[in-house]
């Protein structure tokens, strides 16, 4: 199968970053499991560039690249031990961490990063590389925090409106690939929908019905596209959208969200709900451009 195009289920190849740390290795193995479930290849990337790069001596540069190659060899060996049939390639880049991943991945690829690392490639600490990649990627990015063990058999898709349908379809495809069920979670905050407390008493039921109907309209085409997929719709009233999604993540193998990127943010940015879920979720989180 051509690795440059998505498979028949619409899910593309997987690209994972590593810095050699234990947490990064866990993320690489999670990425390998995802690639295996999709029947797609895995590429593992290590970027050696950092703020000191311009001051390296020739000997230091050689040592850095040699260590980078050893890290990739160890990652490839770890993947082969668990997924011997999975096609794996590696990329050693002279660029920085986020830039190396973003330059390697094609729009149809899924990028996988750990939530923190040991410096260098990493500081895959959320707030640095992980957030920059999620904010700038042209395709899906999955940040691996906790990995549920055993698997829950559920994929959660966070949906607010039709702009999230791309994320919803990605979640459905992932659920199908893993033989999981899809739980669609839509969270609304009551006081955002009313103009006064007097209206609150009269309008709460009408607003709840309206939110449920809007969710059904968004989910309907996905139900039609994936008729064999078990889909649950959960429309929640909550004081905290992020808090409700973090709670939902405790019973999921993956949470999928559309990236809300503030139109006037300086540099790469994500909406506050996406940012909070990436920091606090109890399972890996996939972020897709809206």
TrEMBL record:
<protein>
    <submittedName>
        <fullName>Universal stress protein</fullName>
    </submittedName>
</protein>
<feature type="domain" description="UspA">
    <location>
        <begin position="13"/>
        <end position="145"/>
    </location>
</feature>
<feature type="region of interest" description="Disordered">
    <location>
        <begin position="1"/>
        <end position="20"/>
    </location>
</feature>
<comment type="similarity">
    <text>Belongs to the universal stress protein A family.</text>
</comment>
<dbReference type="InterPro" id="IPR006016">
    <property type="entry name" value="UspA"/>
</dbReference>
<dbReference type="Pfam" id="PF00582">
    <property type="entry name" value="Usp"/>
</dbReference>
<feature type="domain" description="UspA">
    <location>
        <begin position="155"/>
        <end position="289"/>
    </location>
</feature>
<dbReference type="InterPro" id="IPR006015">
    <property type="entry name" value="Universal_stress_UspA"/>
</dbReference>
<dbReference type="InterPro" id="IPR014729">
    <property type="entry name" value="Rossmann-like_a/b/a_fold"/>
</dbReference>
